[in-house]
UniProtKB/TrEMBL annotation:
Record's keyword terms, sorted: Oxidoreductase
A GO MF label: oxidoreductase activity
Species in which this protein is naturally found: Parafrankia irregularis
Protein name as it appears in the record: 3-oxoacyl-[acyl-carrier protein] reductase
One Pfam family of this chain: adh_short_C2
InterPro entries: NAD(P)-bd_dom_sf, Sc_DH/Rdtase_CS, SDR_fam
Coiled coil regions, renumbered to chain: none
Family note: Belongs to the short-chain dehydrogenases/reductases (SDR) family.
Length: 267
């Protein structure tokens, strides 16, 4: 795996590793992709629809001396995982890299549903298709590629910890993801593979832009101080740095966990 000379600087803890980050065209996924690349991993930057944004993530990584390539697959339909891995395999081959993966980060997700009175069956199904079924089958198809000692990291949410009836169906998808991490960790431990959830609180990304800055927001929500004990809103980097630790060799003894990354807030 001879491409590390393109990585500038000291040895990274993920040198020689390959990582897949889903939904890495923006937001938390982009920050994770950039951080894992900074740690030395070759990063497959998965995207669903925004090819230009995904290419921007790749260019940011390359500009920083890292290695990355884009991987396209629309998640939420049967066959999505197979399509994703086919694109991943092709991207690796095109880059002249060995087949296989060391870190799988299931970050792509959709969120924020209405309360139970307003959720349609179609919305419910789409939430579960993208947030639960896609990670499940991405891992199922990825297992033949995932090397021993690898990492599976599911980006869940702090909403699994508290009552959030206004986003009930979304919270349920993340609860399912946490159960996935818990049980799969036991299955894969024999191979030295860890499986964990990282559970962010409110993070300043596009999905929260209206809520954080919109006119209609409640005064309590407008106060950044109310969203964490640090007096500021969480940033994608705050999550990416925790993911980087979980992905690192130092986290070998951490598995089956849900790691709250909420700035000390309830959410
Ligand atoms: P975002 O909307 O900015 O990014 C989500 C990414 O997933 C995008 O790149 C998008 O293209 C991709 N994606 C969504 N649906 C897809 C589909 N059907 N097919 C392919 N790609 C798809 O969101 P974000 O805030 O960066 O959130 C990332 C993850 O973190 C999500 O799983 C989200 O549930 C979770 N999370 C976010 C927050 C927060 O406050 N932002 C809090 C807790 C958990």
């Amino acid at each position: 795996r001879g491409d590390r000379e393109t990585v500038i600087g000291t040895m990274g803890v993920l040198d020689g590793r390959t990582a897949l980050v889903t939904g890495a065209s923006r937001g938390i996924g982009r920050a994770i992709a950039r951080r894992l690349a900074a740690d030395g991993a070759v990063v497959a930057v998965h995207f669903g629809s925004s090819e230009a944004a995904a290419k921007q993530t790749v260019e940011m990584i390359i500009a920083s001396g890292g290695r990355a390539f884009p991987v396209h697959a629309t998640l939420g339909a049967p066959g999505d995982a197979a399509a994703l891995w086919a694109a991943f395999d092709a991207g690796l081959a095109a880059a002249g890299l060995d087949p296989g993966v060391d870190v799988i980060v299931n970050n792509a997700g959709i969120g924020r549903s209405e309360d139970i009175r307003n959720v349609t069956p179609a919305e419910f199904d789409q939430l579960f298709a993208v947030n639960v079924r896609a990670p499940f089958f991405i891992v199922q198809h990825g297992l033949v590629r995932l090397r021993d000692g690898g990492r599976i990291i599911n980006i869940s949410s702090g909403v699994t910890r508290i009552a959030t009836p206004d986003i009930l169906a979304y919270a349920m998808t993340k609860g399912a993801l946490d159960t996935f991490s818990l049980a799969l960790a036991k299955d894969l431990g024999v191979r030295g593979i860890t499986v964990n959830s990282v559970n962010p609180g409110i993070i300043d990304t596009d999905v929260n832009a209206d809520w954080l800055r919109g006119d209609e927001q409640a005064p309590a929500a407008r106060s950044a101080a109310s969203l964490s004990v640090f007096g500021r809103v969480g940033q994608p980097q705050d999550v990416a740095d925790v993911v980087a630790f979980v992905a690192s060799p130092d986290a070998r003894w951490v598995t089956g966990q849900t790691i709250d990354t909420t700035g000390g807030s309830a959410l």
